[in-house]
Amino acid sequence: MKIDRDAPIGVFDSGVGGLTVAREIMRNLPSEKIVYFGDTARVPYGSKSKDTIIRYSRQIVRFLQEQQVKAIVIACNTASAFALDAVKENLDIPVIGVIEPGAVVAAAETKNKRVGVIGTIGTVGSGIHEDFLCRIDPEITVIGKACPLFVPLVEEGWLHDPVTFEVARRYLRELKEREIDTLILGCTHYPLIRSTIGEVMGEGVRLVNPAYETALELKRLLRDKDLLSTGKEQEEFPYRFYVSDLAEKFKDFANSILPYDVEMTQKIDIEKY
């Protein structure tokens, strides 16, 4: 099957967190079109079972296929952990998650072989970052810490709030005590409070933003498969946004973090897929 190189890239997440991945794709691949789906009716994914996440992910992929995307980015750590392999097996277009690109960079960056991972309960509990990192370098020790309150704080817009700083200080105390020198922001919401996390961890700890690394990995993948956009087919609205609920709230949040004005967000019934 010949894939249209000027077709859009499909990006999906459990809600708004994946917009940090979309933002990095916009910055690093400015010629590409994006179809974004946020599963705002069924967020959060972090506390749900693997079977449920796979079912949700397959529904979303069917929707994105209907939009004739040329590649899919699973911009959600929990879905990347639980559903990436299941989604890949039925598709003839490239699919990438957000976990591997971040793990590769963390393994290269750590000097003392002590890497921290923060994320949802589901992501940290899956041990997937540990699996990847230990495959790359068996000498690396991985210390995981679930930080479930970070997501609601980000979605509330409390990015530089004393409450967020205090929550971060309490969550990250254990990682500081374990003397990690590299920290993976293992949830797509977390880059939005990167400055707070950095302040708590101190200058000696390298923060890895998988959203940025995923955009670079996507660029490499599209180049290797000769699927980079020609940039010839310019559209008035190169970025399309769909959600399963709360379209206006999503649009407001998107406009607060994207380098692009989101005019419209469309609500769809994802259950029919």
Could you describe the 3D structure shown?
With 273 residues, the protein is of the alpha/beta class. The chain has two domains: 9-97 and 212-272, Rossmann fold, CATH 3.40.50.1860; 99-210, Rossmann fold (3-Layer(aba) Sandwich), CATH 3.40.50.1860. It is 44% helix and 16% strand. Strand 1, helix 1 and strand 2 form a beta-alpha-beta unit. The longest helix has 17 residues, at 50-66.
CATH topology of the largest domain: Rossmann fold
Task: Please give the largest β-sheet.
Answer: 6 strands, parallel
Return the CATH architecture of the largest domain.
Answer: 3-Layer(aba) Sandwich
So what's the CATH class of the largest domain? Answer: Alpha Beta
Number of domains: 2
Overall mean confidence score, pLDDT: 94
- Rough outline: globular
Kindly report the oligomeric state of this protein: single chain
Could you name the ranges where pLDDT drops below 50 across 5 or more consecutive residues?
Answer: none
Helix content: 40-55%
**How many beta strands in the DSSP annotation?**
10
Radius of gyration: 18 Å
What structural class results from the helix and strand content?
Answer: alpha/beta
Number of H/I helices = 11
H/E topology pattern: EHEHEHEHEHHEHHEHEHEHE
Strand content: 15-25%
Major sheet strand order: 4-3-1-2-9-10
- What is the CA–CA distance across the termini? 23 Å
Essential attributes:
four-stranded parallel β-sheet, 11 helices, single chain, Rossmann fold, about 270 residues, six-stranded parallel β-sheet, 2 domains, alpha/beta
